[in-house]
Write a structure and sequence with these properties.
Blueprint (H helix, E strand, L loop, with lengths): L9 E3 L7 H6 L4 E4 L15 H12 L3 E5 L4 H8 L5 E3 L8 H10 L6 E5 L2 H11 L3 E4 L11 H14 L12 H11 L2
Parallel strand pairs: 1-6, 2-3, 2-5, 3-4, 5-6
Length: 187
């Protein structure tokens, strides 16, 4: 299939749909996540109560959350300073270097992590290049940082090509539903 490298392994509506029980059932030890419009709305640096609750639940269960961002070190450090999560910046996604760096530092296997993000051209592609499963989520808010408009435009075109026949991008309400759909459909 054309552009297969942009097709996510799974798709869920939100990062918050990745529950502890569902992650543990799949043997996931860590969630690697994009920052802007995935974990935090780019214009809301404090996050939401739902975000803090989700992070607390994962931490209590021993599941690590690591931000893998293309932003500067200063920007990412400032954004995650109250979240108690690891991070790496200047990841240069879609290059896999940020993901591979985190895997090596923590000695995680590729099947023990998920890379979660709201963009196919950066997050999903980087996950494929790193050999880790990807989870595409809906962007938290419709507006983006100005640098992202080109990616969003190209992504719309890519979605039309990837999902043009009988297949559609389905947003699942839970990770378990996304896993089940992949098992049934085989893709």
């Amino acid at each position: 299939m054309a552009l297969n490298f942009l097709k996510p392994t799974y798709s869920v509506e939100s990062v918050y749909d990745l529950s502890v029980a569902e992650l543990k059932a799949q043997g996931i030890k860590a969630v690697l996540t994009d920052l802007d419009n995935t974990l935090l709305a780019w214009n809301n640096p404090d996050g939401t109560p739902e975000l803090h609750q989700w992070l607390s639940e994962l931490k209590s269960a021993g599941i690590e959350v690591v931000v893998v961002s293309n932003n500067t070190w200063d920007r990412v450090e400032k954004a995650v300073s109250d979240l108690d999560v690891e991070y790496t910046a200047w990841s240069l996604k879609p290059l896999p270097r940020g993901i591979l760096k985190v895997l090596k530092q923590n000695q995680w296997q590729k099947d023990e992590v998920l890379m979660v993000g709201d963009q196919m051209l950066t997050d999903v592609w980087a996950a494929h290049l790193a050999g880790v499963p990807s989870v595409l989520v809906k962007q938290l808010i419709e507006s983006d940082m100005w640098q992202t408009w080109l990616n969003r435009s190209l992504e719309k075109l890519a979605k039309k090509i990837i999902y043009r026949k009988n297949e559609t991008l389905i947003w699942h309400k839970s990770f378990a539903d996304a896993v089940k759909a992949k098992e049934i459909n085989g893709n």
